[in-house]
Structure formats: structure tokens, C-alpha cells
Amino acid sequence: MSRLPSCSRAFALGLLFVLLPFSEAFAHCFVGPRFFPATLVIDDPCVADEMSLPTADWFPTAGVPPGSEVDISAEFDKRITEDLGFGISDVWSQIRTPGGTVVEGLGDLETTLQYQLLKDASHETAMLLGLIVDWGGTGNVNAGIGTSYSMLTPTYYFGQGLGGLPDDLGFARPLAITGQIGYQIPTTSYVVSQSLNIPEVLVYGASLQYSMPYLKSEVKDLQLPDFINHLIPIVETQFFTPIANNIGNPSITTGTINPGVIYIGSTYQVGLEAIIPVNSASGSGVGVLGQFHLYLDDMFPKTLGQPLIGGTSTPTKAPL
pTM of the prediction? Predict the structure, then answer.
């Protein structure tokens, strides 16, 4: 899940990371031989030292006639200990209405605290607990991009590789599933100035991915071009279902399906996905989403990529 602030210091920091010499590559979310990439719509099931800079999307908004929205976001994640991580992100949005009016600005600042419940290498299983906080009043409330209230979203994340399938199903073993489910709770149930009830929302999603690096290293080397061996085709989904205090608001579930592909480099990844709305309330046409993501724990394993406390473990080298 990626967000990007439009701030020159963040850009300069990201540029510095790109220009500094790369050290030996290590994968930041390995569970045994399974590598879970940083997904673009939902979050991966590991705490890590990483940065998304930028994540950008464009899509037609819901309504007839439709408008359009552009989002540019950044996210920085840091391990406090091996199992405890902290993240901070923000997004700049520009919304064009059908009448030609343009509103733009920063959304609410978002922070995430995550704890690694499990990494089971033999079963390629990862589990994570997190608390996402969107801080009300930190975005452009007047433009309708930020909100005057905060939102708390306790979230459970998981990842499961299928490497344990029998040998006669070998070409299915590169498959993996990740997902998350959270419950979004606003800090107020009613905004007086708008006479608006603020609902509690179930936020959930999943990804199905096929790892070409895993196919080469763990199943069979098909002597494919090197570029192909770095790809992970993926389909992500994310949905929002109002659960409580939804009087006066639409009760319909909204969401998107996002097919695409991720290219895995030694210290970075690049992802590109389509944005397909699941119904008319979710959007009026197909959009596009792209991301450039840095593995800071792979780039700087002895400095910036170490946990703040107890950073002595040796990462597992990526089989690329």
C-alpha cells in the first residue's frame, strides 16, 4: 500500500538512495525460498526497511459523466526490531470534475505500526499484525481530499506460498497468495458541518502471484530470457464494505481488481497494474497504477537497512 508526499526533501532522500553504491543484494521479504514482493494495492506480510518513491495512478472516477483522479504517493518503512516495524506515507491527489473544476492537495498523513507474528520457512507462511492511523486534519480538508477526523484500522496480513505442493504439480509451486483484512474505525461518528454519518468500514484484499524467480530456482530452469526470470505476474484486489453507522451513505461494496506484473531487481522492483473497478460506484473505466520500490535493507544491510534495535541478523540472499 503506497503513498507519496510531494515534498522536495523526500525526493532528495530518494534520489540519494538511488545514487549511492549498491551493496550485495538481499531479499527483504523472504520466507524460506519464497520471496513476497511489495504489492502495489495491499501490503506484503513482512516488516522491512523499504521505500516506495513514487507510486502513481490515474483513473476515471465514478459518476456520469465521469471525472478523473491522479494520485502520487510515497511511503517509508523502517524496522525498529527484527519483528516490529513503523511506516509513514502520504499522497498528493488531483481530482478533475466533469464540469472542469480541479481540486488538489495532500491527503491525511498515514502511519503504520506492524508486528511480525510468524515467518515459517518450511511452509512458506508469513503473518503480520498492524495498526494503520490516518491522522485527521493533516490533509487538504477544504478540498475534500483530507478529513477533519482520524481513522484507526487494525489489520491482519498473511502470505502463503504453494511450494509444498507435490512434485507432479511442480509448475503450480511458484504460486503464492497474500492478503489483508482490517476494520476502519473513525474517531467521530458524525460530522456536524456536513450532517454526515461516518461509517465503520471493512477493508480487505488479496493477491495471487506467480514467481518466475521461484520457478527457476526451486522447480525447473526453463532457460528463459533473464528478463522473464525476474518477473512476478500478479492479480490484486481491494474492497471496502461499510459495516456500521452508515445511515445516509451508500451501503454498496466498492473496490478494484488489479492485474499486472512486478519486475524484481537486486535492490529494487518496478510494478505496473491496471485498475479495473468492480462496479459503477468504484469507477467508470480502467485506470493505471505504477510503482518504483527500493529495498533499503538490501541496499544498505549494515547501516540504514538494519533494525534500530538488535540489528545483527544476516539476510537471505535473493535467488535472482
Answer: 0.88
